[in-house]
Amino acid sequence: MNLALWIVTGLLAAAFLLGGAFKVITPKEKIAAGGSSGRWVEDFSEGGVKAIGALEVLAAAGLVLPAVLGIAPVLVPLAALGLVLLMLGAAATRIRRHETKLVMVDLAYVALAAFVAWGRFGPESFIG
């Protein structure tokens, strides 16, 4: 179970680090021009998109660094819970925009992050 949690955590951290960094450094217009998966930025300001990207980068760091460094490892499941909330918001945005095919991707991220939160709060907690 611990190995599965680490694999999922690593994949989530990599995905959100790359995706978040992309949102932070790429202009909103360029993200929107990237195809149907990037049109959601039309609903947000430039600062809002950058804030979402920054949250994703922070969540990626929070998934891995506390456990690796042994400093406040309780932050790992909290970061995973934050990603659950962030991706539920993403799914709600997709539903509002009638982008139903992409909602399933967001919900897959919700399920993976919820698995990490459950595992690190419960059976494979770093505390205790």
Automatic annotation (TrEMBL):
Keywords: Membrane, Transmembrane, Transmembrane helix. It is found in: Membrane. It comes from the Bacteria. It is a multi-pass membrane protein. The chain crosses the membrane at residues 63-90, 102-121. Coiled coil: none annotated. This is DoxX family protein. It comes from Streptomyces solicathayae.
